[in-house]
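Posting for a labmate who doesn't have an account.
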Amino acid sequence: MPAYNEEAYIAKTIVGAQQHADAVLVVDDGSKDDTVRIAGALGALVVQHETNKGYGGALQTIFCTARDLGAEELVIIDSDGQHNPGDIPRLLAELRKGNDVVIGSRFIDDSNAEIPAYRKVGMKILDTATTIAGTNLTITDSQSGFRAYGRKAIEAIRISDEGMSAGSEILILISDHRLNVAEVPIRVRYDIEGTSSENPVSHGIEVLMNIVRLISLRRPLVFFGIPGLVFTLFGLGAELHTFSEYYRTAEFHYVLFTGGFSMLILGLLLVAVGMILYSLVQIILQGQESAGRVASDSSPIVTFLHAEGSEVAEERAPHPVEGVPE
């Protein structure tokens, strides 16, 4: 579980998770409170970031550590008390039916009718944006942080985003690797105070902007090409109308001609940019796929802590983990 200043609720989450897991891993993302001490005292494996890397940065470390430990199954749950650890067996049962990823969804049934309306609208917008970004998945809750992963998914998912849109990036990677995905219903508590220091509206806008950035990087033909075609068509239409009016009335509309010509040039440039970026993205993705098969010989040491912060194990990670103290 990722954690950042969660001293108020992490103990209950750890104890609940320990009833359903062989080991509980807490990735502390630069907390300033007693999160690390509490997690260690309860027997959790703790990996610390010296500075706050963000939600995506914590997920990067979680997946890297899971690969390092040879985990066959990985369940990621929020540490702020909103998720119920009692739902873990439900996700694992679905995972063991042959699925590679199982997502805990808040929208499969009516059990979460108490979700504020503005949150529902925001989540649906983010779901749509995530689909446009290239998931090709039919899921009801793209922003759920309660997920279970099998060994194939643990090996395949290599996150680059360090922000809150990392969850959407994971779905894109799941789609890219053609992993099997299922959903199960979960309940999420919204009556817990202090679970987020960020306004949900500004948080949603930030996630949306990051997803838009992912779209521009992952689907440049959609992001640049479609607007480019629209501008090109409008530009051509304006030019044709200008010359048509000139031949019919001998009156030349300079403003319309200039505007149409500008739109035509802009449209062609956007289409060209989309095609160039698409080619570059394909080259980069092929390079990343090849590089992912090669383990790094210069990876850092991952140090696990438990009670009283004493070191209990040191193992060399097969892939770099930024922000983890040696």
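Reply:
Got it, the structure tokens are right above this. The beta strands are 2-3, 25-28, 45-48, 73-76, 101-105, 147-150, 181-185, 301-305, 311-316.
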